[in-house]
Specification:
The protein has about 140 residues and is of the alpha+beta class. It has 2 domains: about 60 residues, no CATH class; about 40 residues, no CATH class. The chain contains 4 helices and 3 strands. Strands 1-2-3 form a 3-stranded antiparallel sheet, with no helix packed on it.
Length: about 140
C-alpha cells in the first residue's frame, strides 16, 4: 500500500482506505499496547465513522479543487478549433477486428481519408461528404 501523500487528495491512499496511517515495522516492534488499544469497539465506532466521513469529504473537495486548477491550466494552452465550409478534415474510424477475414484493428489506420465539410450543424458538430464520391 502506498504511504506517500497524494497531491490531489492531501492524504495517503492508506489513510483514505483504512482511516489511519499504516504501521511501520518499527511501530509494531516498539509498542504493542497501541495496537491493542486502537481496536474499534462499539463505543468508539461512531466517532470513527464521523472522522472517516469528514476525511473523505475533505479529500473529495481537495481532489475537485485540484481538477479545476488542472483544467484551467490546460484550457489556457488550448486553441479553439473552428472549421469553415468546404474545409477538408480527417474522420476517426473504429474498425472491428475480424479473425476470419484476417483483419486486425490494431493495424488499420485510425483516421479515414479527408472529407469535406458540407454543413455546420453546431460549433462542435459538422456534416461531411466525401469529395471523391459526392453522392454519398
Amino acid at each position: 500500500m502506498n504511504t506517500s501523500v497524494c497531491q490531489f487528495t492531501g492524504y495517503t491512499p492508506a489513510y483514505l482506505t483504512f482511516d489511519r496511517e499504516l504501521r511501520t515495522p518499527d511501530d509494531v516492534r516498539r509498542d504493542f499496547r497501541a495496537i491493542i488499544e486502537s481496536d474499534n469497539f462499539v463505543l468508539q465506532i461512531t466517532p470513527y465513522l464521523r472522522t472517516l466521513a469528514t476525511t473523505l469529504s475533505q479529500a473529495r473537495d481537495t481532489h475537485e479543487h485540484q481538477q479545476d486548477i488542472r483544467k484551467k491550466y490546460a484550457d489556457s494552452k488550448r486553441r479553439d478549433v473552428t472549421y469553415k465550409l468546404s474545409d477538408l478534415v480527417l474522420v476517426n474510424t473504429h474498425v472491428l477486428s475480424k479473425a476470419k477475414a484476417n483483419i486486425t484493428s490494431k493495424f488499420i489506420p485510425r483516421r479515414d481519408e479527408p472529407y469535406q465539410i458540407s454543413r455546420i450543424v453546431s460549433p462542435t458538430y459538422y456534416e461531411v461528404k466525401d469529395p471523391a464520391n459526392p453522392y454519398l
